[in-house]
Amino acid sequence: MIHEPEAKNVVILMLKMGYTLSDVAQLADDLKKRQSKLPNPMTILRDPTLKKLVASIKDQPPSERAEFGRTVNELKIELTEQARFKEQRLDDKPPIDVSAPFDTGVSAANQPKLLPASEGSLHPVMQELGVMEDIFVRMGFRVERSRLIDDDYHMFESLNFPASHPARDDYDTFMTSEGLILPAHTSTMQHRVLKAQRAGLAHGQPIAAVIPGRVFRNEDLDATHEHTFHQVEGIYVDSGISLGDMMGTIQTFLEAYFNEPIEFKTQPFYFPFVEPGLEFLIKMPTSWQKPGSSQWLEIMGCGMIHPNVLKEAGVNPSKYSGFAWGMGVERLIMLKHGIEDIRYFMSGRLDFLKMFKGEV
Ligand code: DAH
Hints:
The protein has 360 residues and is an alpha+beta fold. The chain has helices at 5-15, 21-36, 48-55, 62-92, 124-138, 152-155, 190-197, 243-258, 307-312, 329-337, 344-347, 350-355; strands at residues 142-143, 207-216, 228-238, 264-268, 274-283, 296-305, 321-328.
């Protein structure tokens, strides 16, 4: 049964004795639709409608015959090419084996030989992130997860970088064609965490969260710069919080992570989302210090959260204050384990990965 008016028109057309030029477009459409459903698309060339269309070329009035002929011919070429394209696509591809490798029906001998799980181990970054998270949890922080794709609002706007703020240029971000952003820092999570945890403040519950995450920058690569690396963001907000609390918190974490006392210093640095903003540096182990190079290594940006960032997330800056940091995970791991080149982490080099083979 044919219900669609369009399909009905086609049937009426097919019953007609001769065709005019204006019929061709509709018949062409119908032929293409039917061809797409055929198991062998080449057979459309033997379709009676197409044959009738070709036969009617000679019946056209002389003034229209040439154009009519060309149009029908083009249609034939198009249908042939479409059929060839489809056949090729099927021929070019190897068949897909849809049998499940772990199907209980497959005998052990016929199952694919895959690496057993005991051969692998967690990537060094994931192992060390686990160690860092444990320390922060013991210090009373909640662990939240960052994202692999984000937007302009969370990357910039909510962090007090208004549109066309020059500090946006400090982050050479990767973007999708839709304008989404691969986060260049884990600070993209600050606004979300502040908003999600702000309700506790009135009940004396501070906002205390760490957010480990993968970040991406269009960097020139060298021993200390990678396009993809990890940060742990930290946020702490309550009433009466000061820079002293921040320094104590970071120092406590670092001493637990390195398992030894550390020496640190801070120096002023501008980030739009903190006031004041600081860089946090630690003294390198003596064995690391190269003659002539600085003995201090910058490992994170930090500071007191800017009142505009608190306000934007619905936290009253005249009642509450807080600090935040974004620490470079690979840098800390490199320091702890004496790794000299950040690029090893992404290299997939087995000799490097095996040094960390522990937990699976
Ligand atoms: N997001 C900054 C960066 O990656 C680092 C940073 C600085 C994070 C200060 C913070 C902060 O939370 O308060 O360049």
